[in-house]
Amino acid sequence: MVKLELFEVDHWILTHTTNIKHNLAHSYCLPISINTLGLQFQDAHASSDPVSSVLSTPMDYGSSMRGSEELRAKIAHMYPDNSSGHLSPENVLTTPGASLANFLVIFALLGPGDHAIVQYPTYQQLYSLPRSVGAEVSLWKAKENNGWKLDTHELKSLIRPNTKMIVLNTPQNPTGAVIPKTTLEEIIKIAREHSISILSDEIYRPLFHSISPTDPDFPPSILSFGYENAIATSSLSKVYSLAGLRVGWIASNSSSIIDLCINARSYALISVSHIDEYVASFALGPACVDNLLERNTTLVKRNLALVESFIEEHSSICEWVKPAGAPIGFVKFTRSGEPVDDFELCRSLLDRKGLLLVPGSKCFGDGKHFRGHVRIGFGGDTAELRAGLKALGEAIKDNYSALSPLLSE
Where is the Aminotransferase class I/classII large domain (predicted)? Predict the structure, then answer.
C-alpha cells in the first residue's frame, strides 16, 4: 500500500486560513487576471484576445496526447540545447501544474528498490513522493553557513549501485538559492558517469533578481547541457502569475523518458484543459511573456528591498542568506543567539497580528532541521507586504520573548 506523508506546508496553510490579515505564506508572484493579461500584455497588433477563438473550438481530447502543439512549441523554445537550436516540441509534455509533472516523472522512473538523491532543503513533494513509491531517499544537504551551496564531493559519496535519480530544485523553495552553472556542470558529469537521471524542478526559473545573466555562474536550465537523461519541470504558477490556470510541463532531452511519462500520464488524465492550454499559449507568446516577466522581476526586486531593510533593522534577532531567485526567502529568528521555536512564533503571529508565515522546521524539516527558520513570500502586492512587515515589527517590539520562546523553554 502506498503511504503518503502529510504534506506539511499545504496542511499548515489550509488549517490556518482564519483571521488572516497579512498573508506572507504565499510563494508566487502577484496573480493576474486573464482579462488583464489580454489587455496589458498582448502584442499591440494581435488580432485576438486570450479566450475569443477558443470559444468555437470543439472540446474533444485534442490532437495530441502530449498537449497543445502550439503551447509545446512555445515551451520548447524556452530551452536552448547545447547547439544553436532549441528543444523539439516532441520532447515536451503538458500537465495540470508542476506538482503533477513531478509526480508523473517520479511515478514513471522510480520504484521499489531504487535510490534517489534529493537536494535539501526543498519542496517536500520532491523527497516524499519517491519514498511513497518505495524508493530509498538520501538527502543531499546544503549548509546555510555556506550560503546554501551544494557539495559535489558529498554527492559522490551518496551514490549507490541502485541510484536512479538526482532531484534538484533551482531556484530553490524555501531559500531562493540557485545552483551555480559550475556546480550544475559537475552534477551533470557525475550523473553521466553513473547513467543517473536528473530531475530539476525549475518552477521559479527564470525569475532571477539577485544574479546577473552576465555572471559566469548564472545558472542555465538543466536541459541546456545536452545530457540525455535530464528532465526539467515547471509551470505558469509561480513566475508567470497564473497559478489558477493549472498548466505545467515536463521537458526532457530524452524521447524515451517522455514516452514513459506519457504512459504514466495516461493512468492519471487524458489531456489538459484546452481552455487552459490556449490561454497558457497566449501568455507564453513573445510579447506577452517578456512583459509579464519584466513586471514580476521589477515587483520582486522592489519587495526584496523591503524585506532586506526589515532584516537589517532587526539584525539582532533575524538573518538570512539573501535569495538569488524566486519570490521567497528563509529567515532565521533567534534569541540570545539561539534559534527560537519557529512553530510557536508563526502561531503567535497569526493569533496576535493575523500574520501568516510558514514555519521552517515543520514544513521543510523534520522538527530538528531548520529550527528558527520561517519562509516569507515577497512576490505579492507591495502595500500588503509593507503592512505585513509592519505588523511583524510591532509584534517583535511589543514582547519578542513571549512571542518567540526558545526550544528549551
Answer: 64-392
Q: Give the chain's radius of gyration (CA, Å).
A: 21
Q: Output the DSSP codes for 281-345.
A: HHHTSHHHHHHHHHHHHHHHHHHHHHHHHHHHHTTTTEEE---SBSSEEEEEEEETTEEB-HHHH
CA distance 44 to 46: 6
Range of the domain at 388: 8-33+289-403
pLDDT value at position 44?
A: 47
What pLDDT digit, counting tens, does each position of 50-65 carry?
A: 566 667 777 776 667 7
Answer yes or no: is pLDDT of 140 > 50.
yes
Query: Do 374 and 263 sit in the same domain of this protein?
Result: no
To 10 degrees, what angle do helices 274-283 and 286-313 make? 80
Residue 1 located in a structural domain: no
Contacts of residues 56-61 at CB distance under 8 Å and 24 or more positions apart, as own/partner, are 57/274, 57/278, 59/274, 61/270, 61/271
Residue 28, domain member (yes or no): yes
CB 372 within 8 A of CB 364: no
